[in-house]
Amino acid sequence: MDNLLEELQPIFRDVLDQPNLIITRESNASTVEDWDSLAHVNLVTAIEKRYKIRFALGELQELKDVGDMIDLMKTKLGQK
Amino acid sequence: MTEYQWTDLFVGLRHGFSAAFTEEMMKNFENLSGDVNPLHVDHEYAVHAGFVGPVLFGMMSSSLYSRLVGVYLPGKYALLQGIDIDFNSPCYVGERLNVEGEIIFLSDAFKRLEVKATIRKDSRQLVSKATIRVGFHG
């Protein structure tokens, strides 16, 4: 589970089409180029498919950066 | 046109239809796209290149994927958000093309669905296959 940030790197690189992108826990839509609303939907659905988890819209609206997403993922993966 | 609500949709839901393109449609697509590549507009050139005749524009046959999601799967409340297409074999004016699509993924968070779709000839030869990402605005 501590490797989630590393596991998310290829997902972000693929969805955002940036092969050299490196995200951190502090990365968010304001700091990453082309992370727009459609890319956000694509990122969320890619994560849902990869980890076989589902998010609710309300949960996602509370996230402010990748770190928050990872923490939410950990909660959901722990519940499985 | 189907009018599925979000809660009506499920993984495995399928729709299909058939269509064919005419010479006039080819000319119209040539005009609107500006694609005048001889493989599509010059019969003699296309035959010399080893094809039966002018090859249907790939983006034109793929317009059937637009119909698939906009009219059938999910229909009225669709918003096309992305599509990946492989063009497997050429097709020609007058050939019947059979389009089949199936929902393979649903995400409630943003009301996003994904459809796996194919276009095949009557012989079952694969013309193209696509993964289509569709938003739902209902």
Task: Write a brief structural summary.
Chain A is mainly α and 80 residues long. Chain A has helices spanning 4-16, 37-51, 57-61, 66-79. With 138 residues, chain B is of the alpha+beta class.
Total helices of chain B: the number is 5
Question: What spatial form of chain B do the alpha-carbon principal axes imply?
Answer: elongated
State the CATH superfamily name of chain B.
Hotdog Thioesterase
Which percent bin holds the helix content of chain B? 25-40%
Seen as an oligomer or otherwise, the chain set is heterodimer
Radius of gyration of chain A: 12 Å
Number of DSSP-assigned strands of chain A: 0
- Just give the CATH class of chain A: Mainly Alpha
Largest interface: A-B, 13 and 11 residues
By helix and strand content of chain A, what is the structural category?
mainly alpha
Percent helix of chain A, as a range, is 55-70%
Per DSSP E runs of 2 or more residues, the count of β-strands of chain B stands at 5
Task: Output the CATH topology of chain A.
Answer: Non-ribosomal Peptide Synthetase Peptidyl Carrier Protein, Chain A
List the domain count of chain B as a whole number. 1
Overall structural domain count of chain A: 1
Number of H/I helices of chain A: 4
Strand content of chain B: 25-35%
Q: What amount of the residues of chain A lies in strands? A: under 5%
CATH superfamily label of chain A: ACP-like
Model description:
The complex is a heterodimer of chains A (80) and B (138). With 80 residues, chain A is mostly helical. Chain A has a single domain (4-79), classed as ACP-like (Non-ribosomal Peptide Synthetase Peptidyl Carrier Protein, Chain A, Orthogonal Bundle). Chain A contains 4 helices and no strands. Chain A has helices at 4-16, 37-51, 57-61, 66-79. In chain A, α1 packs across α2. The two termini of chain A are 13 Å apart. The model of chain A has no long low-confidence stretch (mean pLDDT 93). Chain B is an alpha+beta fold. Chain B has one domain: Thiol Ester Dehydrase, Chain A, CATH 3.10.129.10. Chain B is built from 5 helices and 5 strands; from the N terminus they run βαααααββββ. Chain B has a 5-stranded antiparallel beta sheet. The chains are: A mainly alpha (80), B alpha+beta (138). The interface between A and B is medium-sized, with 13 and 11 residues.
